[in-house]
Design goal:
Nucleotidyltransferase, domain 5, 13 helices, 3 domains, 5-stranded mixed beta sheet, two-stranded antiparallel ribbon, alpha/beta
């Protein structure tokens, strides 16, 4: 058996190949294209394992190498550093360390989602990014109006009445040009958002898992699909606490001298899952038992704490609904 440690970069990877005894068989640098990557592992004849860290382009390399070897392992970057911190850090040393850890079966593995799940993640994240771009453009237009000392006579500047007012408001020529360009971009983004929103709704209605999740107050088509994409196989989490930790919604814990202190949430893990459930918590905080829970926490600790606590509770409920395959019933959360 051969063990490959790969330090992956954007355009190239540095690799170290070791045998069962820990002896280096070969080292090198390879371009991140299919032909050269396959040539690296081909001498093993399939009797090999490869480890690479979770980087932005890991999915491509993972999919290229998987048919050629016995196993491709995804290493959790921060946990690898915790196990093997080196004073001298180079690409070759990183590849050596990864190969050593793989041979000793000490790799802290990260979840490698299948290609279809990764594609869904990418599509939903891109849709969310476009929505954020539109919000930024609106903020820029508001900033131009503020610099011009203009107060809008309507609450929604971008509604039908607001757009009519924007078209005739008195602005200096350069600022008028800026606003018109922003509005043009905003219209293009708005059309894209409407189309993708319709797709999201259709996908959620066609997916029985998403329909189950939408029985939970505050969870709509986007939240349900993002849960499924970001979590992947829900059964990989032994309990809801592990999922809460994965989303970065678990509080930091400091224990010393027999005393335990809970701090702010860790924000470690999936920022997308944390974001979408935080957004859903605002809606859920107005409905039924979850609304009562939200208001109870708000009275005691404030609005932000209530949002986080409700998001955490929503995620726990979603975990149980997805794992059991049963719809949510009021009073069971």
């Amino acid at each position: 058996m051969e063990y490959y440690g790969m330090d992956v970069h954007k355009r190239y990877s540095v690799f170290t190949c070791m045998d069962d005894k820990g002896q280096v068989v070969r080292r090198g640098r390879v371009a991140n294209n299919k032909e050269e990557l396959c040539q690296v592992v081909a001498p093993s004849g399939g009797a090999a394992k490869v480890v690479l860290e979770a980087t932005s382009n890991w999915g491509y390399i993972f999919d290229v190498l998987e048919p050629w070897v016995e196993e491709v392992v995804m290493a959790h970057p921060s946990r690898v550093k915790a196990i093997s911190s080196a004073k001298v850090k180079t690409d070759r040393i990183d590849a050596d360390i990864l190969a050593h850890l793989l041979r000793a079966d000490l790799i802290p593995a990260a979840y490698a989602a299948p290609p279809q799940v990764r594609d869904q993640r990418e599509w939903l994240r891109s849709r969310t990014s476009v929505v954020r771009m539109a919000a930024q453009l609106k903020n820029r237009i508001h900033a131009v109006l503020a610099r011009s000392g203009v107060n809008a006579p309507v609450s929604d500047v971008f509604g039908k009445g607001g757009r009519a007012w924007l078209g005739q408001v008195d602005l200096r020529s350069m600022r008028r040009d800026i606003v018109e360009r922003y509005l043009c971009l905003l219209d293009a983004l708005g059309e894209d958002i409407r189309e993708t929103t319709a797709q999201v709704r259709r996908q959620a209605q066609d997916d029985p898992r998403a329909r189950l999740l939408m029985t939970i107050p505050g969870i709509g088509p986007l939240t349900s699909l993002m849960f499924l994409a970001e979590v992947g196989d829900v059964h990989r989490f032994p309990d809801a606490r592990h999922l809460v930790s994965y989303a970065g919604l678990a509080p930091r814990v400091r224990a010393s001298g027999g005393k335990v202190h809970l701090g702010h949430i860790s924000k470690q893990g999936s920022p997308w899952l944390r974001w979408v459930f935080t957004e859903a918590a605002v809606t859920a905080g107005r409905i039924g038992c979850l609304g009562e829970f939200y208001r109870r926490v708000q009275r005691r600790a404030g609005r932000q704490a209530a949002i986080i606590a409700t998001a955490r509770k929503l995620l726990v409920i979603a975990y149980h609904v997805a794992k059991k395959g049963q719809p949510y019933r009021e009073g069971t959360g």
